[in-house]
Amino acid sequence: MNIITFITFCIEHYAKHTGKTGDVVYQLLKREKLIELLENDYDDLHGMGTEYLMQFIDEYLDNEFSKQYYNNQSNDHSNIRSIIIPEIVNMILEKYHITEIEALDIFYTSATGGSFADDETGLYGQSALFVFGLFCEEQEGI
Fold first, then answer.
1. How many domains does the chain have?
2. Cα(53)–Cα(57) distance, rounded to whole angstroms?
3. Given this model, what pLDDT does residue 119 score?
4. Rounded CA gap, 113 and 111, in Å?
5. How many CB atoms lie within 10 A of CB 132?
6. pLDDT at 96
7. What is the spatial distance between Cα 25 and Cα 116, in angstroms, rounded to a whole number?
8. Residue partners of 48: CB distance under 8 A and separation at least 6
9. Are 34 and 60 in contact (CB under 8 A)?
10. pTM listed for this prediction
11. Secondary structure (3-state) at 75
């Protein structure tokens, strides 16, 4: 698992854990400098289990959004998103010649990223290339 895949995994699973959307969780983790911590401490954290990571994030954030981990099981597409988002991020960084973290940031803060995080849109069922196309249209104002 590379760093972007790991960070995305944490974002999407913490979204599931808290009942929030990925874009909301991304903004929280970015604001609290947890994205940087996950990147810098990747070697120590990436082998930890999901429950441990959720507890770690809860404690780091002082339980800002905490819920019981298994209480939010309905319509869970966090695994799908945590697989597709790194592919989208890689396409973004290749097209715009930016770093992985910058690509992750512009995706999660975009309208496309917000729509992708919302299960109601059904975008989680689309290919990475399709979502990337939507993202590019948004960036280019099409």
1. 1
2. 6
3. 83
4. 5
5. 21
6. 96
7. 13
8. 56
9. yes
10. 0.69
11. coil
Angle at 6 between CA 103 and CA 1, to 5 degrees: 110
- What lies within 8 Å, CB to CB, of 8 at 6+ separation is 81, 82, 85, 86, 89, 104
* Both tokens assigned to 12: 């999407």
Query: Could you list the residue range(s) of the whole structural domain that residue 53 is in?
Result: 3-139
Please give the pLDDT value at position 71.
44
pLDDT in tens, 90-129: 999 999 999 999 999 999 999 999 999 988 888 888 899 9
pLDDT at 65: 53
Amino acid at 67: K
Give the residue ranges of the chain where pLDDT is below 70. Answer: 63-76
Q: Which residue has the tokens 């939010």?
A: 72
Burial zone of 12 (CB within 10 Å; 0-12 exposed, 13-18 middle, 19+ buried): buried
